[in-house]
Design goal:
Blueprint (H helix, E strand, L loop, with lengths): L3 H12 L2 E2 H19 L8 E4 L2 E3 L1 H7 L4 E2 L17 H14 L4 H9 L2 H7 L11 E2 L1 H11 L2
Antiparallel strand pairs: 1-4, 2-3, 2-5
Helix pairs in contact: 1-4, 2-4, 2-5, 2-7
């Protein structure tokens, strides 16, 4: 199976410099649409419902302290391998990223803040609180199957 690091490397190598926040959101939506279109997750890691939107903790730990990601070199310790991605997975990622790449990261964050998977995972936490609440793959599948197809 592919890893979140494979997906991150693929996006950065093909779409260039972006903020860490934007990369997180693009990977979140790529994961969601892989569940909907391909019937399988891109990778096993879960997303947590953080204050500024979904965050994959493993990827966060890799880019922690970096705002702009100029290339995928920071991923080298995780040994990402783009060849782990199938043609179908690349098509899903490309479709998602092509449709969202022109949005600034704060717009992507605002989008997800209005969507049920993030809202459910956040529960009653106060605004700005960091949480450990998982956005389940099942909640992603159910919501995006209904709203993005």
């Amino acid at each position: 199976m592919t890893t979140v690091f494979d997906v991150a490397k693929y996006i950065l190598d093909n779409y260039g410099t972006m903020s860490a926040m934007k990369l997180q959101k693009l990977i979140f939506y790529s994961q969601a649409m892989s569940l909907v279109w391909d019937d399988v997750p891109l990778f096993e890691d879960d997303f947590e419902a953080w204050a500024k939107g979904p965050v994959c903790r493993a990827l966060f730990n890799a880019h922690k302290g970096k705002f702009f990601l100029k290339n995928s070199d920071f991923l080298n310790p995780y040994k990402p391998n783009i060849s782990n991605l199938s043609t179908e997975q690349k098509e899903t990622i490309n479709t998602v990223v092509d449709s969202l790449k022109d949005y600034p990261p704060y717009v992507l964050s605002d989008m997800v803040h209005k969507e049920k998977p993030w809202l459910e995972a956040r529960g009653d936490l106060p605004q700005g609180a960091r949480c450990q609440n998982i956005i389940t793959k099942n909640s992603m599948l159910e919501y995006y199957l209904e709203h993005w197809t």
